[in-house]
């Protein structure tokens, strides 16, 4: 899916994509509170490379077969409408390289609401925060998790 860098960022910040999540997609390291919206935006625009790059290799969503993983992510992004994100809470423990971000994602597939709330775990690896896993507290349908 192609979106103009000047379009509003799908994360809901009201800023242009290029000045919001786009800076992280282009390589700026993101702290967990910004990594969550940047990953949501990556799902919304189909940026599977970013999703794979920001997934912790020890997490349950990691796949060794990068091509198959990319195809799975692309299919999910294509069939899902990303209608809104709200970050509810976050906490960071820099000393141990562990953080949590709690969010609510409004998603739809075939017109059916499939949104969920999740408390995501982020771990720091080699100086970068990466999505590890999440605990879904409300789910109308399975999501990709990564």
How would you briefly describe this protein structure?
The longest helix has 14 residues, at 32-45. It is built from four helices and five strands, in the order ααααβββββ.
Report on the architecture of this protein:
The protein contains four helices and five strands. The mean pLDDT is 93. Strands 1, 2, 3, 4 and 5 form a five-stranded antiparallel sheet that branches. It starts with 20 loop residues before the first helix and ends in a 7-residue tail after the last strand. By secondary structure, the protein is α+β, with helices and mostly antiparallel strands. It is globular. Helix content is 27%, strand content 34%. Strand 4 and strand 5 form a beta hairpin. The protein has a single domain, classed as Nuclear Transport Factor 2, Chain: A (Roll), CATH 3.10.450.50. The relative contact order is 0.17.
- Note the overall shape: globular
* CATH class designation: Alpha Beta
Name of the CATH architecture: Roll
The count of helical stretches stands at 4
Q: Which H/E pattern describes the elements?
A: HHHHEEEEE
Radius of gyration: 14 Å
Count structural domains: 1
Output the CATH topology: Nuclear Transport Factor 2, Chain: A
Percentage of β-strand residues: 25-35%
Which stretches are poorly predicted, pLDDT < 50 over at least 5 residues? Answer: none
Task: Note the main sheet.
Answer: 5 strands, antiparallel
- How many strands appear in the DSSP assignment? 5
Mean pLDDT: 93
Helix-residue proportion? 25-40%
Span of the ends, CA to CA: 18 Å
Subunit organisation of the chains: single chain
Structural class: alpha+beta
């Amino acid at each position: 899916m192609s979106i103009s860098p000047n379009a509003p960022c799908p994360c809901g910040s009201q800023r242009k994509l290029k000045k919001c999540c786009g800076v992280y997609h282009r390589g700026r390291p993101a702290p967990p509170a910004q990594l969550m919206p940047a990953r949501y935006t990556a799902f919304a625009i189909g940026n599977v490379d970013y999703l794979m790059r920001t997934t912790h290799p020890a997490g349950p969503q990691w796949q060794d077969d990068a091509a198959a993983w990319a195809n799975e992510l692309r299919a999910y992004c294509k069939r899902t409408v990303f209608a809104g994100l709200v970050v509810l809470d976050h906490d960071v423990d820099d000393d141990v390289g562990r953080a949590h971000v709690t969010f609510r994602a409004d998603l739809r597939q075939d017109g059916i609401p499939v949104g969920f709330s999740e408390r995501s775990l982020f771990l720091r690896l080699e100086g970068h925060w990466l999505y590890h896993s999440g605990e879904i507290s409300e789910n109308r349908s399975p999501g990709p998790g990564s």
